Amino acid sequence: MKSFSYLSLIVLAALSAGNQAHAFGRAQPLGTIQAESAVPKEQIELLRKDFDWLATLKTETPTDEFRQVLEMNDATPANLSGWLNDRVSYLIAENFKPSLLNIRPYIFKKFEYPASDLPELELPPEAKTSPVLDPNNLPEGKPEDEAKAEPKGKVVMANLGSALYLGGKMSKLLLGIKLRGVGRIPVTSPRVGIIQVGEGLFYDGFYGESVAKDSPIRKAFRMSTFFHEARHSDGNGKSMGFLHALCPPGHDYENMNACDRNTNGPYTVGALMDEHLAKTCADCSEAERETIRLMGLESRSRILPEKDGSPATAWDAAPEGNFPPRQ
Questions:
Q1: Which residues, other chains included, contact 227 with Cβ-Cβ below 8 Å and sequence gap of 6+?
Q2: What is d(CA 239, CA 327) in angstroms, rounded to the nearest whole number?
Q3: What's the rounded Cα separation, in Å, for the pair 244 and 265?
């Protein structure tokens, strides 16, 4: 299986503006999650099967680490779904391009951001811009045939809601995002739960030809990715959004924001889910279970000590902001 990189915050320099070809129609239901109308139907169908698969998992006593990190005593399918649905409300298509056409401040709406510290942003040495969307410097839209920046690594999924909340807090503007088939949503908390599909989520190149899109391995990959991204909806102050750290020299993802400096962040959540899925999957062969376990080990390889070399600790996961009602 090829290596991949979760890039959970949108890097502005890696975004090409493109024409905003808005698809009309209603949001597509994905359990309690609303998928904008532009998400391809074949992707929606696969994800529905993934959630159905999640509901068939055997109920087993979770590890102490699982209980502590996900704050869940019993890892029943219902509890797992509930944990995810608390943190993910909207799904955006891969072709959604943040621009002034679909992200604007609520100029006349008063909103007070919590008076808390901002999280630390670790930037690659060559970075020329913050890895968080700057609402004052969004692309306005360019022809499709203009040169596009090529992102380093493949984006699997991205928590756009968390990035927009931080961008709004930094600029002291309440931002709103307009989703196709859903409408405009004020980003008053990372818990708004706006997740974008990346090109890597359904990418065949990570797997051999024998691994079908609906195989347990790929179901586990997509589900653990969802849980990884859901963790970015948590945190407050310095832990807000559980921002990724730069991977160190010699790491597979050296100088990329693809590691964590905590013991309960997105990569830990993803690893715990992979380990749990490998243990509770009823239709997995032993070879498939081992592959899913290896996926979990790969996530654990991204958990780093603090910058001063001291061991990583758990961050405060209590969410910041005002949670908007679901539309």
A1: 83, 84, 269, 270, 273
A2: 27
A3: 9
pTM of the model: 0.86
Find out whether 23 and 181 touch, Cβ atoms under 8 Å. Answer: yes
Q: Residues 118, 120, 125, 131: is their CA dihedral positive or negative? A: negative
The gap from C-alpha 51 to its chain's centroid, in whole angstroms, comes to: 17
What distance in Å separates the CA atoms of residue 278 and residue 269, rounded to the nearest whole number?
14
Kindly state the DSSP code that residue 237 receives in the 8-state scheme: G
Q: Decide: 215 and 49 in contact? Cβ < 8 Å.
A: no
**Cβ count near 22 (within 10 Å):** 15
Q: Is 315 in contact with 235 (CB distance < 8 Å)?
A: yes
pLDDT digits (tens, 9 = 90+) for 232-271: 999 999 999 999 999 999 999 999 999 999 999 999 999 9
Strand partners, 257: 246
Structure-token match 């391995």, residue found: 217
CA count, 13 A, side-chain hemisphere, 143: 3
173 close to 109: Cβ distance less than 8 angstroms: no
Who's near 141: CB < 8 A, 6+ residues apart? 17, 18, 19, 20, 99, 100, 101
Distances (CA, A) of 76 to 38, 153, 287, 295: 32, 34, 24, 22
pLDDT digits (tens, 9 = 90+) for 20-32: 333 457 888 888 9
Q: Tell me the β-bridge partners of 105.
A: 175
| Cα of 219 vs its chain's centroid, Å | 16
Paired residues of 53 in beta bridges:
none
Q: Which residues have a Cβ under 8 Å from the Cβ of 108 and sit 6 or more positions away?
A: none
